């Protein structure tokens, strides 16, 4: 049973949650997990209770929240980096793959929809709590703008949402790097104009060939390993930018190569809260439908099968319902 601990908390009844690709780092043992640990950091739900200092969020509201709790008032929040809030807390610390969750700093973390949404919007609103917000940040960090040629490295849920974001921000050519037919199909439906199946040096060479030997204006790195980062940097034209949102594992840079490439680099944990009002409006207006990345839905009681399906690449992303 979840309880109010701080006066700024809210208790949420989970309507939907999911398994994240980043959860697989722990599931596979790449990140050591030495004791029973709650998991999950993506959520939408109905507010059941709020602390005495919560003023904007009310019981009965349907809310979408970020994986980092933020006050949304500190200097970093005001600069648009709520994931670096001076008082941030990781919402997933208590696990969002649960029937209820406690959200700290509720007024600064949660965004309520105008009314309880139609069921058809729930998957896309859930996607906004992380993967769509993270894909959007990749595009914002890379400074995608109208007329750009954009490469997206990674065809998981974040990469697919990054394709969608690049399209929404005005890119005219979007090259999705993917080897999987079903993911290629969704990438095209989200806005990709080209598909590159090659990886590593071959992938870079193919991008250079497609861009007159120069490279892409913007590259969105959505994986987080050394190969994907090198592929992203080397696929970018001089003066272009890489937006990286894949959680880095064993990633290192050659300082000399980066220096002489004239490629800009920005990324980190996405400040999802900054983008939520806009993304929610786009979902409810029917402009975007990022919930299509969920290709398997299971009851929360079968969460273990959800992890297996994503680990074995039988699913892009698994939606869970209590």
UniProtKB/TrEMBL annotation:
GO molecular function: oxidoreductase activity; zinc ion binding
Keywords in alphabetical order: Metal-binding, Oxidoreductase, Zinc
CDD domains noted in UniProt: FDH_like_ADH3
Segments traversing the membrane: none
Stored SUPFAM superfamilies: GroES-like, NAD(P)-binding Rossmann-fold domains
Taxonomic superkingdom: Bacteria
Domain Enoyl reductase (ER): 13-320
Matching SMART domains: PKS_ER
Required co-factors: Zn(2+)
Family of the protein in this entry: Belongs to the zinc-containing alcohol dehydrogenase family.
Protein name: Zinc-dependent alcohol dehydrogenase family protein
The organism of origin for this protein: Streptomyces sp. R28
